[in-house]
Amino acid sequence: MSAGQKLQPSNMAEQAQRRASQENATQNPPVDNSARDGNSSDSHAYEELRHLIVGPEQEGLKEIQERLDDTGRRIDDVSSVVAEAIQKRREQGDNQALSEALAPTIQDTLRESVRRDPHVLADALFPVMGPAIRKSITETLRSMLESFNTALEHSLSWQGLKWRLEAFRTGRPFSEVAMMHSLLFSVEQVFLIHRETGLVLSHVVAPRVATQDPSLVSGMLSAIQQFVKDSFESQRGDNTLDFLEVGELEVWIEQGPGAVLAAVIRGHAPETYRVAMKEALENIQRHYSSALAHFEGDAAPFRPVEDDLTHLLETQFKNDSEKDRRRPRAALIAGAVILALIAIPVGYSVYLLWEWSRFLKVLRQEPGIVVMSYARDGGRYHVQGFRDPLAANPENLLSSAGIDPKTANLELKPFYSFDDPIVLRRANAFLHPPSGVTLSEKDGQLRAEGIATPAFISRFEERAPWIPGVTAVDDSHLQNSEQLELNRLRSSLESTVLLFPIGRAELEPGQENNIAVTQNNIRALLVEAGRLNGKLAIDVIGHTDITGVEGTNLVLSKQRADVIINLLARSGIKPVNLRGRGVGTSEPLHDESTEEGRRFNRSVTFKVAFSPAPPVN
Amino acid sequence: MLEKKICMLGTLAVGKTSLVRRFIEGIYSEDYQTSIGVKVDKKSVREAGQEVKLVLWDIFGEDRFQKVQASYWRGMFGYLLVVDGTRRNTLDEALALNQRVTDTGLKVPAILLVNKADLADQWEIGDDRLAQLTQSGWEIMRTSAKTGENVDAAFSRLTSKMLGK
After folding, report:
1. pTM of this prediction?
2. A213 in contact with B at a CB cutoff of 8 Å?
3. Which residue from A219, A229, A299 is facing B71, i.e. has the nearest CB?
């Protein structure tokens, strides 16, 4: 229903009156107005009649109107049904709307309540929050303990080992031992004791703490206090025991007029904890002064105190403390400095040693250098041995190893080294090969390759065997620069193969061109040999395949050679330069397993021998 | 649960500690008594349908060299005054001690235990003397720490007196 539709109380009353007068008009005969004006008794009678007829209704309406106009009465009316109305609304199942309507008001109310006096709400919520906080603390501690355990389970630090040993020795779980040592302090138990009787009013214990019967502890603690008080009473007469120390445990005692608060602490709590105890005790004294005074042994009224005491069950770990955090850091820095002081010189020495051993290794591997001994003498190194004059300069080796040559004393006597690189170096120094010639050496065998003048070749052949370290000389790959044409013709002739059919000593047909090239080759060779003033001999070699009898084959091969010699002679080549010989199957040109191979073996080939004229020096 | 502090009072070697040992569950050794003069033990009893935890202060016996510290009985709800039936002087000393208790203004239930009932033939305290004490208002029980006679009964009786029954 919107505001516009609401019926206003005054309107309702007016409408009711109007309706009443209309009804009068219809139910009663019309009255002469002039008569009524003129006759007051009539008017009175009319009023009376009207009163009789609509009076009770009017009274009712008037009462309703008054009731509606009177705010006080309206409040009374609503207040009598407001709870039932809300109840009914909830039963109708429209909680959401109700909650939405009430939420802002309730929130404001709570806010205002806290602003005015936070204690009211705090007190109301205390019984709820205490257990909730306790539960949360218990859970946190348990999970912390577990993670602590796993974290340290694998730690192999010195401390970890020490704790593990202690756990083994005392039979306690490792986590507990680690916890004990990591704790700055932990309040394990708090007692609230009735001062007069020594009876325990309330007692709280941290999770996983083993305790003795609190009644006995409380009684004994009171007895000890009284004992101390009686035994050591001073003139001031207000001596109280407020601190006990038992191994790792401390008992802090705070005295009030009616109650005593005792906290059992593992480790060392800060002085601020004493303040917290004082405040808690003051609070208890204030709230329970009467209960304390009339205590008859029933601790039930003190049950709520448990929450106050639970707040005193504090735990702080070492790494929470600034002081303790600084100490390991300082120790760490000190350790690092000490380590550096030790490590730098040691490291430097180790580096020097390493550098030297590396240098010695290089020196030993260096061709032409032999290390016989080395020693260290006050920062200087001495090396004794031999060095070929052609070997590397040892000072250069020192420099490239990063060592100051001044710190090293190398006594290397000269000798002839037979190391391959040194022998080669020596050969090059001895022979001065021309640019087209390359020398190589392996295991004493000196080899020359390339094209050289006959003068160098003869010098090589003459001098090389005298070079220290050279045991053999190979100049087969050294070409005489003046015999190049002869060599070309020779290779060409020696690669020529003239073919014969099986078992026959006459050329296969179609080799006329081959014969012509061969004849030209031989002629040119004879001309070149004459120019060089040397002596030329050409072997004409006849071959057979392996088929047939060896005796026959030898004869056949000789016949084949003779056929070619005759052929060459007919073309004008003097047989004096040609030597025919038959080798049968003994010098096959090809593998006999195939017909093609066997074909090449039924042939005649050439071998050229040239003896140059002795050089003219 | 109700807790009540009660005290064992009496002179040396009358058997207080033996009576207590018969009765209690404790954690402290008897050395405490000699060092600080008291040992605290406890015992739960059921009396008239109510569970009561008795916190028992066993106070070291008094002799002419050592006076019991008055502070130990402060706040007690009742006490057992123990004497040795075989030694007359223990009764006199106990009564003197009792005087000291009442002088401090304490008015709490008490029972006089005449211990060593097992040695009744050696008693020096006669029946007439006990009757006289009963007349003066003492409730008296004969106990034996050795046989256990009347031990539980004595504590029960004191408890019910403390509960006003």
Report:
1. 0.41
2. yes
3. A229
